[in-house]
């Protein structure tokens, strides 16, 4: 099935309305049309709206319409937004989520599924300690590097490159370690910054690269797969707890059920969207992942030394990889 057909079906189902609704529940995210964030939010909304009938309606606002990731986290607390879909920024909410910032720690989706099945209570506790609750696990995907200076084969090729990163401390540390000049920036600002030369490059999954049209303003794509970033359907623990119990139950069920659809779309993106990027004239190379893994040891050491329970988190997640 073509990715456009998958997305159209999800969007159509999410848009079905049964008339007047008792509640409008706003779902804000930063993804552009055609992004995996959009597909994730729409899959959740589709399932939820079918289950809720006229009790409530989940309405999706993408493209940072309701704010960037940091603003959406604040708006959840204030009750101005009901759902957000943060990814890397969760490492700034609680250090526990920083474990997913460790390079190459997650091997594939099956590995992530085992991690979540075994360790969800750990991450849920970290979210709730900060006033949030995770009601669904989605994904942002495996991240790769684009830039306008040179192909990136080994970490030393990043020397001096001004690279946009999300606003998470560990991603900044990682690219400093590799020799780049990391620049945290809101996703909505990246295209213009690339176009005007304020930054040389950025790192994101194919779905974010293609949907934001970074291929129009980048010369090189280096397939590094340096980090796999989960996405989280996030709510305010307090405000979610105030919803009627049957509404909560339906939303929790859909948070769980939507993941399979999102993973299906994500897997198809990895072939379809790589072709989109190549067809735009971007030069693509496979990076030397072993070289990046070897260069990453110091950031693991720092995580273990500075984050409470860090060594245990790394050991548990690594131990759930296939063949471990």
From TrEMBL:
<dbReference type="GO" id="GO:0030288">
    <property type="term" value="C:outer membrane-bounded periplasmic space"/>
</dbReference>
<protein>
    <submittedName>
        <fullName>TRAP transporter substrate-binding protein</fullName>
    </submittedName>
</protein>
<comment type="similarity">
    <text>Belongs to the bacterial solute-binding protein 7 family.</text>
</comment>
<dbReference type="InterPro" id="IPR004682">
    <property type="entry name" value="TRAP_DctP"/>
</dbReference>
<dbReference type="GO" id="GO:0055085">
    <property type="term" value="P:transmembrane transport"/>
</dbReference>
<dbReference type="InterPro" id="IPR018389">
    <property type="entry name" value="DctP_fam"/>
</dbReference>
<feature type="signal peptide">
    <location>
        <begin position="1"/>
        <end position="22"/>
    </location>
</feature>
<keyword id="KW-0574">Periplasm</keyword>
<dbReference type="InterPro" id="IPR038404">
    <property type="entry name" value="TRAP_DctP_sf"/>
</dbReference>
<keyword id="KW-0813">Transport</keyword>
<keyword id="KW-0732">Signal</keyword>
<dbReference type="Pfam" id="PF03480">
    <property type="entry name" value="DctP"/>
</dbReference>
